[in-house]
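step 3/5: co-fold with S-adenosyl-L-homocysteine
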Amino acid sequence: MSDMPSVSAAPTLRETAPGFAVAQAILKPRKARPFYGRHPWVLDTAIARIEGNSQDGDVVDLLSESAKFVARGIFNSQSRIRVRLYTWANEEALDNAFWFRRLRTALELRKQLGLIDPEGGARLVFSEADGLSGLVVDRYTHWLSIQVTGLGMARRLDEIVALLVEAAHPRGIFVRTEKGVAQAEGIELRDGLYWGEAPKGPVFISENGLRYGVDLAEGQKTGFYLDQRDNRRAAAEYFLGRRVLDMFCYSGGFSINAAVHGHAHEVLGFDSSQKAIALARANAELNHAHNVHFDVADGFKALEGLAAERQRFGGVVLDPPKFARNRAAVDEALRAYHRLNRLAVDVLEPGGILVTCSCSGQVSREDFTYMLVGVAQQTGREIQVLEMRGAAPDHPLAVTCLESEYLKCFICRVI
Ligand code: SAH
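step 4/5: write tokens
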């Protein structure tokens, strides 16, 4: 680690030996099962008491009611997820070498997937799915964009950044924090360049042989929706000669794939964000996609307007933002998905293709499928699911934390 930059570990950390516990979280009776099953989130309601003086960001051991070691994690009194677990091996410290091993393992997968393309974009670290709860790292050519979603990672940001510099050799690293997440975890809001140099203007990435400008400083999330990479390509295959509507288009990914790879006859893309539409237009131009038109509009209103005008499409893509942020919001979210998909079916010609997505982790695949059942019943149209897809493989699903499954993308034919 000789070429490590001179960033120091956060001063607030207190550890006995580096990476070992300063305190113990004792589980309530009969609450240990999920954690023996390696689920990484210990909610406040599962913990009977804390023994020792643990401050936010400290390493703590999770013990059963009878004081047996279960796992080791990081404490946060401000979050409902009181302890995030990282190792189930008693001898393993959560030290610098540990984080490096986890990052290396995550990077190896992306290499294996062929996604360490210096011209491309990929998710290098996907939180729980890579054993690094609270850390997301996306790569856009020579730049990294980090989203911190847990306090433990936020407190170790300097350490993580130094390790990423060593493992991935970026030119610059941005850190983006979402307001809601920062509040839920008690993390300081950060937004901007954290290490190294900033690119001059947007970073241009290649994906599926197409080029996109990514705004690392002000784009949505970390700048681009990498999870839809393979779905954009798959959807395009169905659009030959069709008129396609791309609703919630962001920077135009589905539209441009439909036009260039799918040879769609014409594509209309809508998004409520002016910045997104500006990016989408620039991206269409960059790829010489001249039969694609983007406009700012609310997705629901635009669909209602198109239906009222009796406009018809051979393909509709629906990729709305997250509708359900928590369990309580699921029913309401399902009603919104129902309304949206119903409107889409109304503008689809017989035999039209519906590409319908949901990125609400709280809405299960089953819930989403039943939503479509309701749409089929109410519209009297048959919906045939042709492909049930998920996120691209650089966004894996950890079977020990099924919450890491969030993206549904169904490609359907509507008769
Ligand atoms: N399909 C895109 C990603 C979409 S993300 C891609 O492939 O990259 C969801 C998008 O919905 C965001 O760009 C956001 O600006 C937009 N959005 C949010 N609320 C909206 C609304 N009510 N109407 C239209 N667009 C909306």
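step 5/5: annotate
The longest helix spans residues 330-347.
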